[in-house]
Design brief:
single chain; alpha/beta; five-stranded mixed beta sheet; 21 helices
Protein backbone atom coordinates (compact mmCIF):
# COMPACT_ATOMS: atom_id res chain seq x y z
CA UNK A 1 0.00 0.00 0.00
CA UNK A 2 2.86 2.30 0.87
CA UNK A 3 4.40 1.62 -2.58
CA UNK A 4 1.18 2.77 -4.28
CA UNK A 5 1.10 5.89 -2.14
CA UNK A 6 4.48 6.98 -3.49
CA UNK A 7 3.45 6.16 -7.07
CA UNK A 8 0.32 8.31 -6.68
CA UNK A 9 2.38 11.08 -5.10
CA UNK A 10 4.82 10.92 -8.01
CA UNK A 11 1.98 11.25 -10.53
CA UNK A 12 0.55 14.24 -8.66
CA UNK A 13 3.94 15.97 -8.76
CA UNK A 14 4.30 15.10 -12.44
CA UNK A 15 0.89 16.47 -13.43
CA UNK A 16 0.90 19.59 -11.20
CA UNK A 17 3.08 21.75 -13.51
CA UNK A 18 0.75 21.10 -16.44
CA UNK A 19 -2.27 22.06 -14.37
CA UNK A 20 -0.50 25.22 -13.24
CA UNK A 21 0.44 25.97 -16.84
CA UNK A 22 -3.23 25.90 -17.77
CA UNK A 23 -3.98 28.27 -14.89
CA UNK A 24 -1.27 30.69 -15.92
CA UNK A 25 -2.26 30.72 -19.57
CA UNK A 26 -5.95 31.17 -18.83
CA UNK A 27 -8.77 28.66 -18.96
CA UNK A 28 -11.92 27.85 -20.80
CA UNK A 29 -12.77 26.07 -24.05
CA UNK A 30 -11.73 29.09 -26.13
CA UNK A 31 -8.21 29.00 -24.77
CA UNK A 32 -7.98 25.24 -25.27
CA UNK A 33 -8.80 25.76 -28.95
CA UNK A 34 -6.34 28.65 -29.24
CA UNK A 35 -3.53 26.41 -28.01
CA UNK A 36 -3.73 24.60 -31.31
CA UNK A 37 -3.10 27.84 -33.21
CA UNK A 38 0.26 28.01 -34.97
CA UNK A 39 0.41 31.69 -33.97
CA UNK A 40 1.36 32.36 -30.38
CA UNK A 41 2.88 35.12 -28.28
CA UNK A 42 4.89 34.60 -25.11
CA UNK A 43 4.12 37.47 -22.72
CA UNK A 44 5.84 37.89 -19.37
CA UNK A 45 3.58 39.80 -16.98
CA UNK A 46 2.80 40.26 -13.29
CA UNK A 47 -0.82 41.07 -14.20
CA UNK A 48 -3.67 39.17 -12.59
CA UNK A 49 -5.42 36.22 -14.19
CA UNK A 50 -8.45 38.42 -14.90
CA UNK A 51 -6.42 40.91 -16.95
CA UNK A 52 -4.63 38.13 -18.80
CA UNK A 53 -7.84 36.33 -19.70
CA UNK A 54 -9.82 39.40 -20.74
CA UNK A 55 -7.06 40.72 -22.99
CA UNK A 56 -6.63 37.30 -24.60
CA UNK A 57 -10.36 37.24 -25.41
CA UNK A 58 -10.32 40.88 -26.52
CA UNK A 59 -7.32 40.35 -28.78
CA UNK A 60 -9.04 37.36 -30.38
CA UNK A 61 -12.18 39.41 -31.02
CA UNK A 62 -10.10 42.27 -32.47
CA UNK A 63 -8.25 39.93 -34.82
CA UNK A 64 -11.52 38.34 -35.91
CA UNK A 65 -12.96 41.77 -36.74
CA UNK A 66 -9.96 42.30 -39.03
CA UNK A 67 -10.32 38.84 -40.62
CA UNK A 68 -7.01 37.70 -39.16
CA UNK A 69 -6.28 34.27 -37.66
CA UNK A 70 -6.38 33.84 -33.91
CA UNK A 71 -3.34 33.95 -31.61
CA UNK A 72 -2.71 32.06 -28.40
CA UNK A 73 -1.11 34.20 -25.71
CA UNK A 74 1.23 32.11 -23.61
CA UNK A 75 1.41 34.18 -20.43
CA UNK A 76 4.36 33.72 -18.08
CA UNK A 77 3.77 34.97 -14.54
CA UNK A 78 6.80 34.49 -12.32
CA UNK A 79 4.71 34.92 -9.18
CA UNK A 80 6.49 38.07 -8.04
CA UNK A 81 6.98 41.63 -9.17
CA UNK A 82 9.38 43.70 -11.21
CA UNK A 83 12.53 42.37 -9.58
CA UNK A 84 11.65 38.82 -10.57
CA UNK A 85 11.28 39.96 -14.17
CA UNK A 86 14.69 41.63 -14.06
CA UNK A 87 16.22 38.49 -12.52
CA UNK A 88 14.88 36.40 -15.41
CA UNK A 89 16.62 38.57 -17.99
CA UNK A 90 19.81 38.90 -15.95
CA UNK A 91 19.97 35.12 -15.54
CA UNK A 92 19.60 34.54 -19.30
CA UNK A 93 21.82 37.38 -20.48
CA UNK A 94 24.90 35.15 -20.76
CA UNK A 95 23.05 32.83 -23.17
CA UNK A 96 21.83 35.63 -25.43
CA UNK A 97 24.89 35.89 -27.71
CA UNK A 98 24.26 32.31 -28.86
CA UNK A 99 20.44 32.19 -28.74
CA UNK A 100 19.86 35.78 -29.94
CA UNK A 101 16.55 35.71 -28.10
CA UNK A 102 15.22 35.52 -24.53
CA UNK A 103 12.34 33.25 -25.47
CA UNK A 104 9.88 36.04 -24.56
CA UNK A 105 8.03 38.22 -27.05
CA UNK A 106 6.70 40.95 -24.74
CA UNK A 107 6.93 42.21 -21.18
CA UNK A 108 3.74 43.81 -19.90
CA UNK A 109 3.17 45.57 -16.58
CA UNK A 110 5.33 46.46 -13.61
CA UNK A 111 5.64 50.25 -13.71
CA UNK A 112 7.58 52.73 -15.80
CA UNK A 113 10.74 52.53 -13.69
CA UNK A 114 11.05 48.82 -14.51
CA UNK A 115 10.89 49.57 -18.22
CA UNK A 116 12.67 52.91 -18.50
CA UNK A 117 15.56 52.06 -16.20
CA UNK A 118 15.88 48.38 -15.29
CA UNK A 119 15.00 46.82 -18.67
CA UNK A 120 15.96 49.62 -21.03
CA UNK A 121 19.28 50.44 -19.35
CA UNK A 122 20.43 47.44 -17.28
CA UNK A 123 23.83 47.76 -15.67
CA UNK A 124 25.39 44.59 -17.08
CA UNK A 125 23.78 44.14 -20.52
CA UNK A 126 24.80 46.71 -23.17
CA UNK A 127 21.93 47.81 -25.36
CA UNK A 128 19.27 46.73 -22.89
CA UNK A 129 16.64 44.02 -22.94
CA UNK A 130 14.05 45.89 -25.01
CA UNK A 131 13.52 46.10 -28.76
CA UNK A 132 12.98 49.48 -30.38
CA UNK A 133 9.87 49.22 -32.54
CA UNK A 134 7.74 51.54 -34.65
CA UNK A 135 3.98 51.33 -34.32
CA UNK A 136 1.80 51.51 -37.47
CA UNK A 137 1.29 55.05 -38.85
CA UNK A 138 -1.17 57.11 -36.81
CA UNK A 139 -1.31 54.71 -33.83
CA UNK A 140 1.17 56.65 -31.70
CA UNK A 141 -0.44 60.04 -32.35
CA UNK A 142 -3.94 58.71 -31.70
CA UNK A 143 -2.91 57.01 -28.48
CA UNK A 144 -0.78 59.86 -27.10
CA UNK A 145 -1.91 63.27 -28.39
CA UNK A 146 0.24 64.66 -25.56
CA UNK A 147 3.47 62.86 -24.64
CA UNK A 148 3.12 63.13 -20.87
CA UNK A 149 0.80 63.57 -17.89
CA UNK A 150 1.99 66.06 -15.32
CA UNK A 151 5.50 65.86 -16.76
CA UNK A 152 5.65 62.05 -16.65
CA UNK A 153 6.25 60.48 -20.10
CA UNK A 154 3.47 58.19 -21.33
CA UNK A 155 5.77 56.32 -23.73
CA UNK A 156 9.41 56.06 -24.69
CA UNK A 157 10.19 58.36 -27.59
CA UNK A 158 12.76 55.86 -28.84
CA UNK A 159 10.09 53.16 -29.19
CA UNK A 160 11.33 50.91 -26.39
CA UNK A 161 8.09 50.90 -24.37
CA UNK A 162 4.52 52.17 -24.51
CA UNK A 163 2.18 52.98 -21.62
CA UNK A 164 -0.99 50.85 -21.68
CA UNK A 165 -2.88 52.12 -18.63
CA UNK A 166 -2.47 54.72 -15.90
CA UNK A 167 -1.78 53.86 -12.28
CA UNK A 168 -2.03 55.86 -9.08
CA UNK A 169 -1.35 54.93 -5.47
CA UNK A 170 -3.41 55.24 -2.33
CA UNK A 171 -4.58 53.70 0.91
CA UNK A 172 -6.99 50.78 1.18
CA UNK A 173 -8.66 50.47 4.59
CA UNK A 174 -11.13 48.30 6.47
CA UNK A 175 -13.94 50.42 7.92
CA UNK A 176 -15.02 47.76 10.42
CA UNK A 177 -11.52 47.46 11.90
CA UNK A 178 -11.11 51.24 12.05
CA UNK A 179 -14.41 51.60 13.94
CA UNK A 180 -13.38 48.90 16.38
CA UNK A 181 -10.07 50.63 17.05
CA UNK A 182 -11.60 54.11 17.22
CA UNK A 183 -9.66 55.38 14.21
CA UNK A 184 -10.91 57.85 11.60
CA UNK A 185 -10.64 56.91 7.94
CA UNK A 186 -7.14 57.77 6.66
CA UNK A 187 -6.76 60.68 4.27
CA UNK A 188 -2.99 61.25 4.13
CA UNK A 189 0.17 59.15 4.14
CA UNK A 190 1.05 60.63 7.55
CA UNK A 191 -2.18 59.19 8.99
CA UNK A 192 -0.61 55.74 8.68
CA UNK A 193 2.09 56.77 11.16
CA UNK A 194 -0.56 57.19 13.90
CA UNK A 195 0.53 54.91 16.79
CA UNK A 196 -3.01 53.56 17.03
CA UNK A 197 -2.24 51.59 13.86
CA UNK A 198 0.50 49.62 15.67
CA UNK A 199 0.34 46.04 14.44
CA UNK A 200 -2.55 46.82 12.10
CA UNK A 201 -0.86 47.88 8.86
CA UNK A 202 0.21 45.65 5.98
CA UNK A 203 2.74 46.83 3.39
CA UNK A 204 4.49 45.23 0.43
CA UNK A 205 8.23 44.83 0.05
CA UNK A 206 9.57 47.62 -2.22
CA UNK A 207 12.59 45.48 -3.12
CA UNK A 208 10.25 42.99 -4.81
CA UNK A 209 7.90 45.37 -6.61
CA UNK A 210 8.68 48.45 -8.70
CA UNK A 211 5.15 49.78 -8.22
CA UNK A 212 5.44 49.56 -4.43
CA UNK A 213 8.79 51.34 -4.56
CA UNK A 214 7.08 54.08 -6.59
CA UNK A 215 4.45 54.43 -3.86
CA UNK A 216 7.15 54.89 -1.20
CA UNK A 217 9.00 57.32 -3.46
CA UNK A 218 5.77 59.30 -3.67
CA UNK A 219 5.88 59.89 0.10
CA UNK A 220 9.46 61.12 -0.16
CA UNK A 221 8.77 63.32 -3.18
CA UNK A 222 5.76 64.96 -1.55
CA UNK A 223 7.86 65.79 1.49
CA UNK A 224 10.62 67.18 -0.73
CA UNK A 225 8.11 69.33 -2.59
CA UNK A 226 6.79 70.66 0.73
CA UNK A 227 10.32 71.61 1.82
CA UNK A 228 10.95 73.46 -1.44
CA UNK A 229 7.65 75.33 -1.29
CA UNK A 230 8.43 76.43 2.28
CA UNK A 231 11.92 77.82 1.48
CA UNK A 232 11.30 81.26 -0.06
CA UNK A 233 14.97 82.26 0.20
CA UNK A 234 16.09 79.21 -1.77
CA UNK A 235 13.43 79.87 -4.40
CA UNK A 236 14.64 83.43 -4.85
CA UNK A 237 18.29 82.36 -5.12
CA UNK A 238 17.35 79.61 -7.56
CA UNK A 239 15.40 82.07 -9.73
CA UNK A 240 18.35 84.48 -9.78
CA UNK A 241 20.77 81.74 -10.86
CA UNK A 242 18.40 80.63 -13.62
CA UNK A 243 18.29 84.24 -14.88
CA UNK A 244 22.09 84.32 -14.90
CA UNK A 245 22.10 81.01 -16.78
CA UNK A 246 19.72 82.43 -19.41
CA UNK A 247 21.87 85.54 -19.79
CA UNK A 248 25.01 83.46 -20.23
CA UNK A 249 23.28 81.29 -22.86
CA UNK A 250 22.16 84.43 -24.72
CA UNK A 251 25.79 85.60 -24.70
CA UNK A 252 26.94 82.17 -25.98
CA UNK A 253 29.01 81.68 -22.83
CA UNK A 254 28.55 77.92 -22.43
CA UNK A 255 30.95 77.58 -19.51
CA UNK A 256 29.25 80.27 -17.43
CA UNK A 257 25.80 78.90 -18.33
CA UNK A 258 26.80 75.42 -17.19
CA UNK A 259 28.13 76.83 -13.93
CA UNK A 260 24.94 78.75 -13.17
CA UNK A 261 22.85 75.70 -14.08
CA UNK A 262 24.82 73.47 -11.71
CA UNK A 263 24.62 76.07 -8.93
CA UNK A 264 20.85 76.41 -9.38
CA UNK A 265 20.43 72.63 -9.20
CA UNK A 266 22.55 72.48 -6.03
CA UNK A 267 20.39 75.16 -4.38
CA UNK A 268 17.25 73.27 -5.38
CA UNK A 269 18.49 69.95 -4.00
CA UNK A 270 19.81 71.50 -0.77
CA UNK A 271 16.44 73.11 -0.10
CA UNK A 272 14.66 69.78 -0.60
CA UNK A 273 17.10 67.77 1.51
CA UNK A 274 15.26 68.30 4.84
CA UNK A 275 12.12 67.08 3.08
CA UNK A 276 13.93 63.98 1.83
CA UNK A 277 15.01 63.17 5.39
CA UNK A 278 11.49 63.74 6.75
CA UNK A 279 9.93 61.63 4.00
CA UNK A 280 12.28 58.73 4.68
CA UNK A 281 11.65 59.16 8.39
CA UNK A 282 7.89 59.07 7.84
CA UNK A 283 8.33 55.75 6.07
CA UNK A 284 10.09 54.44 9.18
CA UNK A 285 7.23 55.58 11.41
CA UNK A 286 4.69 53.96 9.08
CA UNK A 287 6.75 50.77 8.97
CA UNK A 288 6.82 50.65 12.78
CA UNK A 289 3.05 50.12 12.66
CA UNK A 290 3.33 47.28 10.16
CA UNK A 291 2.42 43.74 11.04
CA UNK A 292 4.08 42.26 7.99
CA UNK A 293 5.70 43.15 4.68
CA UNK A 294 4.31 40.93 1.92
CA UNK A 295 6.21 39.75 -1.14
CA UNK A 296 3.49 40.86 -3.53
CA UNK A 297 1.58 44.14 -3.70
CA UNK A 298 -1.53 42.31 -4.92
CA UNK A 299 -1.98 40.61 -1.53
CA UNK A 300 -2.25 43.84 0.48
CA UNK A 301 -5.90 44.73 -0.33
CA UNK A 302 -7.04 41.17 0.34
CA UNK A 303 -5.40 41.18 3.76
CA UNK A 304 -7.14 44.46 4.57
CA UNK A 305 -10.47 43.29 3.16
CA UNK A 306 -10.40 40.15 5.30
CA UNK A 307 -9.97 42.23 8.46
CA UNK A 308 -6.45 40.96 9.19
CA UNK A 309 -5.19 44.53 8.82
CA UNK A 310 -6.76 47.95 9.23
CA UNK A 311 -5.05 49.59 6.26
CA UNK A 312 -2.29 49.33 3.69
CA UNK A 313 -0.73 51.10 0.74
CA UNK A 314 -2.10 49.90 -2.59
CA UNK A 315 -2.07 50.48 -6.33
CA UNK A 316 -5.36 52.04 -7.37
CA UNK A 317 -6.85 49.11 -9.28
CA UNK A 318 -6.06 46.62 -6.51
CA UNK A 319 -7.73 48.93 -3.99
CA UNK A 320 -10.78 49.62 -6.14
CA UNK A 321 -11.20 45.92 -6.95
CA UNK A 322 -11.22 45.07 -3.24
CA UNK A 323 -13.84 47.75 -2.53
CA UNK A 324 -16.06 46.30 -5.25
CA UNK A 325 -15.47 42.73 -4.08
CA UNK A 326 -16.08 43.22 -0.34
CA UNK A 327 -18.43 46.20 -0.49
CA UNK A 328 -18.00 49.95 -0.01
CA UNK A 329 -19.73 49.72 3.40
CA UNK A 330 -16.81 47.65 4.71
CA UNK A 331 -13.74 48.64 2.68
CA UNK A 332 -12.59 52.03 1.36
CA UNK A 333 -9.85 53.32 -0.90
CA UNK A 334 -8.48 56.87 -0.94
CA UNK A 335 -5.70 58.65 -2.83
CA UNK A 336 -4.11 61.32 -0.61
CA UNK A 337 -5.01 64.71 -2.10
CA UNK A 338 -2.05 66.37 -3.80
CA UNK A 339 0.22 63.56 -2.63
CA UNK A 340 -0.09 60.77 -5.14
CA UNK A 341 1.36 60.38 -8.59
CA UNK A 342 -0.06 59.10 -11.85
CA UNK A 343 2.26 57.08 -14.05
CA UNK A 344 2.02 54.68 -16.99
CA UNK A 345 2.02 50.89 -16.83
CA UNK A 346 3.99 49.93 -19.95
CA UNK A 347 4.35 47.12 -22.42
CA UNK A 348 7.50 46.46 -24.45
CA UNK A 349 8.70 44.14 -27.16
CA UNK A 350 11.65 42.09 -25.96
CA UNK A 351 14.94 42.40 -27.78
CA UNK A 352 15.85 39.78 -30.32
CA UNK A 353 18.74 39.65 -32.79
CA UNK A 354 17.54 36.77 -34.94
CA UNK A 355 15.42 38.86 -37.31
CA UNK A 356 17.38 37.65 -40.32
CA UNK A 357 14.93 34.75 -40.08
CA UNK A 358 11.48 35.29 -41.72
CA UNK A 359 9.82 33.45 -38.82
CA UNK A 360 11.46 35.81 -36.30
CA UNK A 361 10.37 38.85 -38.31
CA UNK A 362 6.80 37.53 -38.37
CA UNK A 363 6.93 37.01 -34.61
CA UNK A 364 8.18 40.55 -34.09
CA UNK A 365 5.34 41.91 -36.22
CA UNK A 366 2.84 39.87 -34.22
CA UNK A 367 4.18 41.34 -30.97
CA UNK A 368 3.75 44.86 -32.35
CA UNK A 369 0.20 43.95 -33.36
CA UNK A 370 -0.63 43.07 -29.73
CA UNK A 371 0.67 46.48 -28.63
CA UNK A 372 -1.47 48.08 -31.33
CA UNK A 373 -4.55 46.25 -30.01
CA UNK A 374 -3.99 47.34 -26.40
CA UNK A 375 -3.76 50.98 -27.52
CA UNK A 376 -6.86 50.70 -29.71
CA UNK A 377 -10.30 51.86 -28.57
CA UNK A 378 -11.51 48.25 -27.96
CA UNK A 379 -8.37 47.46 -25.97
CA UNK A 380 -8.55 50.61 -23.85
CA UNK A 381 -12.24 50.19 -23.03
CA UNK A 382 -11.51 46.80 -21.48
CA UNK A 383 -9.70 48.55 -18.62
CA UNK A 384 -12.62 50.50 -17.22
CA UNK A 385 -15.88 49.10 -18.61
CA UNK A 386 -18.27 47.10 -16.46
CA UNK A 387 -18.05 43.33 -16.98
CA UNK A 388 -20.68 42.07 -19.38
CA UNK A 389 -21.42 45.51 -20.84
CA UNK A 390 -20.93 46.14 -24.58
CA UNK A 391 -17.25 46.53 -25.31
CA UNK A 392 -16.31 45.50 -21.79
CA UNK A 393 -14.67 42.45 -20.24
CA UNK A 394 -16.63 39.23 -20.47
CA UNK A 395 -16.29 38.10 -16.86
CA UNK A 396 -14.06 40.34 -14.75
CA UNK A 397 -14.15 44.13 -14.34
CA UNK A 398 -10.55 45.36 -14.27
CA UNK A 399 -10.99 48.78 -12.55
CA UNK A 400 -8.08 50.42 -14.33
CA UNK A 401 -7.67 53.82 -15.96
CA UNK A 402 -7.16 53.98 -19.74
CA UNK A 403 -4.07 55.80 -20.94
CA UNK A 404 -5.61 56.85 -24.26
CA UNK A 405 -7.34 60.18 -23.69
CA UNK A 406 -10.07 59.59 -26.28
CA UNK A 407 -11.34 56.58 -24.29
CA UNK A 408 -12.80 59.06 -21.78
CA UNK A 409 -14.96 60.64 -24.48
CA UNK A 410 -17.72 58.10 -23.78
CA UNK A 411 -17.77 56.82 -20.20
CA UNK A 412 -20.96 54.79 -20.62
CA UNK A 413 -20.70 51.66 -18.44
CA UNK A 414 -17.34 52.79 -16.99
CA UNK A 415 -16.65 51.60 -13.44
CA UNK A 416 -14.96 54.96 -12.77
CA UNK A 417 -16.05 57.93 -14.88
CA UNK A 418 -13.38 60.32 -13.65
CA UNK A 419 -11.14 61.55 -16.47
CA UNK A 420 -7.70 61.29 -14.90
CA UNK A 421 -6.27 63.74 -17.45
CA UNK A 422 -8.64 66.43 -16.19
CA UNK A 423 -8.24 65.85 -12.44
CA UNK A 424 -4.49 65.18 -12.29
CA UNK A 425 -3.11 67.90 -10.02
CA UNK A 426 0.05 69.90 -10.26
CA UNK A 427 1.95 67.38 -8.12
CA UNK A 428 3.48 64.44 -9.90
CA UNK A 429 6.78 62.65 -9.88
CA UNK A 430 9.82 64.57 -11.18
CA UNK A 431 13.19 63.29 -12.27
CA UNK A 432 14.98 65.96 -10.25
CA UNK A 433 13.40 64.56 -7.07
CA UNK A 434 14.22 60.95 -7.90
CA UNK A 435 18.01 60.90 -7.76
CA UNK A 436 17.91 58.43 -4.86
CA UNK A 437 15.23 56.19 -6.38
CA UNK A 438 17.71 53.44 -7.41
CA UNK A 439 18.76 52.96 -3.77
CA UNK A 440 15.38 53.63 -2.11
CA UNK A 441 14.31 49.99 -1.72
CA UNK A 442 17.66 49.01 -0.24
CA UNK A 443 17.53 51.83 2.31
CA UNK A 444 14.00 50.83 3.33
CA UNK A 445 15.05 47.20 3.52
CA UNK A 446 18.04 47.97 5.75
CA UNK A 447 16.20 50.40 8.04
CA UNK A 448 12.73 48.81 8.15
CA UNK A 449 12.25 45.31 6.74
CA UNK A 450 15.36 43.60 8.06
CA UNK A 451 15.08 45.37 11.44
CA UNK A 452 11.30 45.35 11.74
CA UNK A 453 11.22 43.96 15.29
CA UNK A 454 13.86 46.43 16.49
CA UNK A 455 12.00 49.28 14.78
CA UNK A 456 8.70 48.31 16.44
CA UNK A 457 10.37 48.01 19.86
CA UNK A 458 12.00 51.39 19.38
CA UNK A 459 8.74 53.14 18.52
CA UNK A 460 6.97 51.53 21.49
CA UNK A 461 9.76 52.61 23.85
CA UNK A 462 9.67 56.14 22.44
CA UNK A 463 5.91 56.50 22.81
CA UNK A 464 6.11 55.33 26.44
CA UNK A 465 8.79 57.91 27.22
CA UNK A 466 8.22 61.38 28.74
CA UNK A 467 10.30 62.62 25.78
CA UNK A 468 8.00 60.94 23.23
CA UNK A 469 7.49 63.99 21.00
CA UNK A 470 11.22 64.77 20.78
CA UNK A 471 12.37 61.20 20.21
CA UNK A 472 9.59 60.35 17.76
CA UNK A 473 10.59 63.39 15.71
CA UNK A 474 14.13 62.02 15.60
CA UNK A 475 12.88 58.63 14.43
CA UNK A 476 10.83 60.49 11.85
CA UNK A 477 13.98 62.15 10.46
CA UNK A 478 16.40 59.96 8.55
CA UNK A 479 19.95 60.03 10.00
CA UNK A 480 21.51 61.27 6.74
CA UNK A 481 20.47 63.23 3.66
CA UNK A 482 20.48 62.87 -0.11
CA UNK A 483 24.19 63.50 -0.58
CA UNK A 484 25.08 60.62 1.73
CA UNK A 485 22.39 58.43 0.15
CA UNK A 486 23.82 59.08 -3.33
CA UNK A 487 27.34 58.26 -2.12
CA UNK A 488 26.02 55.00 -0.70
CA UNK A 489 24.19 54.34 -3.94
CA UNK A 490 27.42 54.67 -5.92
CA UNK A 491 29.26 52.38 -3.51
CA UNK A 492 26.47 49.80 -3.53
CA UNK A 493 25.71 49.69 -7.27
CA UNK A 494 29.01 50.62 -8.90
CA UNK A 495 29.13 51.58 -12.56
CA UNK A 496 28.10 49.91 -15.81
CA UNK A 497 31.75 49.25 -16.54
CA UNK A 498 32.42 47.92 -13.05
CA UNK A 499 29.29 46.81 -11.17
CA UNK A 500 29.64 45.83 -7.52
CA UNK A 501 29.59 42.01 -7.07
CA UNK A 502 26.54 40.59 -5.22
CA UNK A 503 28.64 39.32 -2.31
CA UNK A 504 30.02 42.82 -1.72
CA UNK A 505 26.51 44.29 -1.88
CA UNK A 506 25.43 41.84 0.78
CA UNK A 507 28.29 42.91 3.04
CA UNK A 508 27.38 46.58 2.47
CA UNK A 509 23.75 45.89 3.36
CA UNK A 510 24.83 44.23 6.60
CA UNK A 511 26.90 47.29 7.54
CA UNK A 512 23.91 49.54 6.92
CA UNK A 513 21.71 47.32 9.07
CA UNK A 514 24.27 47.52 11.87
CA UNK A 515 24.22 51.33 11.63
CA UNK A 516 20.43 51.52 11.85
CA UNK A 517 20.36 48.94 14.65
CA UNK A 518 22.81 51.11 16.63
CA UNK A 519 20.65 54.18 16.00
CA UNK A 520 17.54 52.37 17.26
CA UNK A 521 19.37 51.06 20.31
CA UNK A 522 20.45 54.61 21.11
CA UNK A 523 16.89 55.90 20.85
CA UNK A 524 15.62 53.12 23.12
CA UNK A 525 18.33 53.94 25.64
CA UNK A 526 17.34 57.62 25.65
CA UNK A 527 13.67 56.69 25.98
CA UNK A 528 14.48 54.63 29.06
CA UNK A 529 16.16 57.52 30.92
Amino acid sequence: MRRYFFIILFLVVLVAPFLLRLMVGGGGDGNAARRQSPRRLVVMTPHSEGIRREFQDGFSDWLKSRNEPDVFIDYRNLGGGANDIVKYFDANASLYPSTKTFGIDLVWGGGDYLFDEQLKKPTSFPGGYLQKVALPPGVLKAAYPTPDIGGVPLYDEGGCWFGTALSAFGIVYNKDVLRTRGLPEPKTWADLADPRYQGWLVLADPSRSASVKTAFMTIVERSMADAWEADAAAQAKHADLKKQQAAAEAANDAKAAAGHKAAAYAVYQAAMDPGWRRGMGLIRQIASNTRVFTDNSASVPGTVGSGDAAAGMAIDFYGRTEVQSVGADRVGYVEPAGATIVNPDPIAVVRRDDTDSPAARDQLALAVKFVEFILSEPGQRLWNTRAGAPGGPRETALYRRPIVRSAYGDTTNFTDRVNVFEVAGSFNTRRDRRDTNPILAELIQASCLDLLDELKDTRRAILASPRAAELDARLGTFPFGQAEALARQAAYVGTKAKPVPPIDRLATMRRWEDEFAAEYAGLRAEAAK
